[in-house]
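Cont'd.
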Amino acid sequence: MSDVLFSLGMLTFGEFLQDLTNPLLSFLPKALVVAVMAAIICGVIGSYVVLRGMVFVGHAVAHSVFPGIALAFILQGSLVLGGMIAGVVTAVLVAVFSQNRRLKEDAVIGIFFVAAFALGIVIISTAPGYSGSLESFLFGSITGIPDSDIYVVAGAGFLLLGVAFLLHKEFVAVSLDREMARSAGLPILALDIVLYVMVSVAVVVSVQVIGNILVVALLVVPAATARLLTDRLGWMMFLSPTIGALCAFFGLYLSWAIDLPTGGTIVLLATAVFLLTWVLAPKHGLLGKWLASRSVDDNDDEPHLEDAAPPQTLRAGEDEPAATLR
Amino acid sequence: MTETTDTWNGRADTGPAVETSAEEAVHLSDGLQVEGLAVDLGGRPVLRGVDLSVAGGELVGLIGPNGAGKTTLIRSVLGLTPVREGHITVEGQANTRARRGIGYVPQRHEFAWDFPISVHDVVLSGRVGTIGWFRRAGVEDYRATREALDLADMTHLKDRPVGQLSGGQRQRVLVARALALRPQVLLLDEPFTGLDIPTQELLTDLFRDLASQGRALLMTTHDLAGAMHTFDRLYLINASVVASGRPGDLRDAEIWTRAFGFREDSPLLNALGVKDV
């Protein structure tokens, strides 16, 4: 196995672990820690994003942090802090403007995120030699993460997960039915703003590694994958960060091993997991639906056949189902 | 008025949920009183001079054409729409104070049925406003949830994800969620829309039971023919109350043509059992 990898010019997993402890490559474990923490944060917050159908809001916030990061870059300030402020300002603007029923939320978002992104490009173009830093903003970079960012990301993570825990029942009630939540006396606008702010913080802490363009994937893909695997919100909010963290870890390994861009590799890996789940998920996947329809057919034809029989025989061989599907 | 009471007693005797011993103990809600309500939406007058009342034990229908202000009336009672004039009293208190004691059952399409959540947890979510900030549901909340599930006859489905429920079951979940607040006044916005007749009849039995236990129920509907034998009393509204009373008192075709703009030879008038007087 390792021979094959070596002949492909690819590092084995063992070599990757060695590199992680190599003091000359100290940026690597830092990138790994930040990527995994970012994936966990995005996995939890992303569950709300996916269930609320506010993926587009995630896009908007992701793009709107750009001017803040650009400004911080020029002023030599903290990129994370700059991005957070810009993201929060845009999030609040979107939340407030969408309360107007004449303008649908997507139109408001379309206006603000493009404007914010344009502002970011204008700001960063004033910096000399900006094209290199522009690329690392947009597509992420695993080198050059300062030590302080690890603490900022960890702190932001604890804060976000804490708020999510404390406001969970309110977020659920608003997601289920805004009218009912309003009649129960919940402050809908304030809760929306809090959620948007949480999304922007989650985005900002992930921008470093994944990049501005791809960061939405970390919010959406693990949560959507988890949704296919369960009908329980609690499980979904556990599975989503787990999937995200695994994708971040192995995505970083692959990108290091084959020398590919880190953000792109993590996102593609997560997408592959999503597609696989979409086909193979027990209840909501293609296979699960096909099995369900098949076991119904079997019951009609041969009532003495046990319900569980067909799925069991199929599960025995792991590669069988894909073959039968074709 | 005496007739209404008789009808109610007659129904209560045959009703399955009310036992004779419990019947004496039934606490009749003070219900809902709306006086001189006027509401504007976007500068346009939607409701004018609406007087309406629902007593405990009553199942009252609110009917009217599209845009007549049915939903606006319900939202006003809930305190969700600014009121221009008028008084709304719930359980003897101004509705702004008592609004957390009102059970609200919105239209089914308002609810995110694809959300990964069980029937039990949806019903529990009805208490979100009373549990309070940063707190988790307590024993009392779980007890109220269990009672509400029982009342709506959904206990056997409590662990089912809501996405897997039929239309009638979904309506019951929303009713149970409203009941989790133990309200004495229930407002239902078009619970019958999109449901077949047998399902509507089962739900009517449920609403009838809930009323006979002393609650006041106000419900909007588009099913006029059904309304004529479902409700104790009816309000026909079109910006203001066009007519109200027991279904038997609303046999004048002119009322219906005025409220709904039916033509005088509309076949619907026959279906309603309404004739020119």
